[in-house]
Design a protein that fits this description.
Elements: H1 2-33, E1 35-40, H2 44-61, E2 64-69, H3 74-84, E3 91-94, H4 97-105, H5 113-116, H6 127-130, E4 133-134, E5 137-138, E6 141-148, E7 150-154, H7 155-161, H8 169-181, E8 185-188, H9 195-218, H10 227-241, H11 254-262, E9 266-271, H12 275-282, E10 292-295, E11 307-317, H13 324-335, H14 337-346, H15 363-374, E12 376-379, H16 387-402, H17 407-424
Parallel strand pairs: 1-2, 1-3, 8-9, 11-12
Antiparallel strand pairs: 3-11, 4-5, 6-11, 7-9, 7-10
Helix pairs in contact: 2-14, 9-10, 9-16, 16-17
Length: 425
């Protein structure tokens, strides 16, 4: 009888082990069969690094991922076409948070409140979760923050010409004069993309009227024809009339300006901290603070404190994703500290998850993070206006850069359209 019992115990153990192995094999097989399609707006090295973190997720789970890099406004067009055709991507990674809220309003995104709400205390600020809400529900998870600390410049060029970081607007104009006389384009625009012109505009808005003016303009609580807004636009127009943006500020994209910065061919360039990623890749010999550096937009009114534009990138799941559970796994992981620390160590990346150590950052990114702690930060204006107005604003800013005598006309046109678009939203 004892031998019979031992036989059945042994048989039970074999069955349990075999069953467990079968379950694990089945899970791996099922995972291997799954394939998530992810669209993102990142390009160049940012896209390459994003693929690396997606590959890491695949290694951990067996879930394959196909990534499509679709920069700029084209991301919206392609995504909407796929949604309308009944074949949407599983996930969308984008900086256009107002567009994601619009998609949520149109009932095309999955509600991820159950995933992100328990993690709220892990993020660096409530604004990154609040920005992804529609009617109090969360429709995207914050994956990346970025900071626009000011105007980057080549230290070696400044030393050669005997220039120092400007503290005031008059000092900035003086530096631009000297750069122009030396045959150097004082301020690179890279305005072909248009969005970086909005970044420059926001930097001036913040120095003219501070964070309150910036916030009210974002929400259209003041008119685009307001005297303070006009003052900011006139300052930009003055720079254009002086030729400080070069002969054709819309000729090239922003990516070319980073290379010109590294070679000392431009005086300064306003860009987010992701510039550091390109510098790290293309100019590894240049050291932060020794060979290139950054300064905040100079003082226009001493009583207006420095404020910086920040924003982020969010990941959303389409409601009709064919792999909804796997998509949720990826979204939750990307919002966590493991994935974000992996990205931070690659450079040009700021984590939204505060459990990522400051020690993980490369020196140039650490400076941007320290700036965000030292100064007030505001959410990016043109990423938080209605999508239709964002497109219009960028187009009008291209006109401002190339037709600086039309300030009043441009502002009037912006205000007319803002009234119409905001009332409809």
């Amino acid at each position: 009888m004892k031998n019979v019992k031992l036989f059945f115990v042994a048989l039970l153990v074999i069955l349990i082990v075999t069953s467990s192995a079968f379950v694990l094999l089945a899970f791996s097989a099922n995972s291997a069969e799954k394939e998530l399609v992810v669209y993102s707006g990142w390009e160049l090295t940012e896209a390459e690094n994003f693929v690396k973190v997606l590959d890491l997720f695949t290694q951990k789970t067996g879930i394959k991922i196909v990534h499509n890099s679709i920069p700029g406004e084209e991301l919206k067009t392609v995504t909407l076409t796929r949604i309308a055709g009944g074949n949407p991507p599983d996930l969308i990674a984008t900086t256009y948070i107002s567009w994601l809220r619009w998609l949520a309003e149109k009932n095309t995104l999955a509600d991820v409140t159950d995933l992100i709400e328990p993690m709220e205390d892990e993020f660096i600020g409530p604004s990154f979760v609040d920005a992804a809400k529609y009617e109090s529900r969360i429709y995207a998870g914050p994956f990346k923050a970025w900071i626009k600390p000011g105007l980057y410049y080549n230290e070696n060029l400044y030393k050669k010409l005997g220039l120092k970081e400007p503290q005031t607007w008059d000092e900035l104009l003086n530096i631009c004069d000297k750069l122009k006389m030396a045959g150097i384009e004082p301020i690179a625009s890279g305005g072909k993309a248009s969005w970086n012109l909005a970044d420059f505009m926001e930097g001036i808005i913040l120095r003219v009227g501070g964070s309150q003016l910036h916030k009210k303009l974002t929400d259209h609580e003041i008119a685009w024809t307001d005297p303070k807004v006009k003052e900011a636009f006139e300052l930009i127009a003055d720079l254009a009339k002086r030729g400080y943006f070069g002969s054709d500020p819309l000729a090239e994209d922003w990516t070319f300006q980073i290379a010109r910065l590294g070679r000392g061919e431009i005086g300064m360039f306003n860009m987010g901290n992701w510039l550091n990623l390109t510098m790290l890749r293309d100019f590894p010999e240049l050291e932060w603070e020794k060979d290139y550096n950054v300064f905040p937009f100079p003082v226009i009114y001493p009583e207006i404190p420095i404020a910086l534009v920040t924003g982020g990138d969010w990941v959303a799941i389409t409601k009709d994703s064919k792999n909804i559970e796997e998509a949720k796994m990826l979204l939750k992981w990307l919002a966590g500290s493991e994935a974000q620390e992996f990205m931070v160590k690659l450079g040009g990346w700021v984590a939204t998850n505060k459990n990522v150590s400051l020690d993980a950052y490369i020196p140039a990114d650490r400076t941007a993070v320290e700036y965000s702690i030292k100064y007030e930060i505001v959410q990016d204006l043109d990423h938080n206006t209605p999508p239709e107005f964002t497109t219009l604003l960028r187009k009008k800013l291209q006109e401002l850069w190339t037709q600086p005598d039309r300030v009043e006309d441009i502002l009037t046109e912006l205000e007319t359209e803002a009234k119409r678009i905001y009332s409809a939203n």
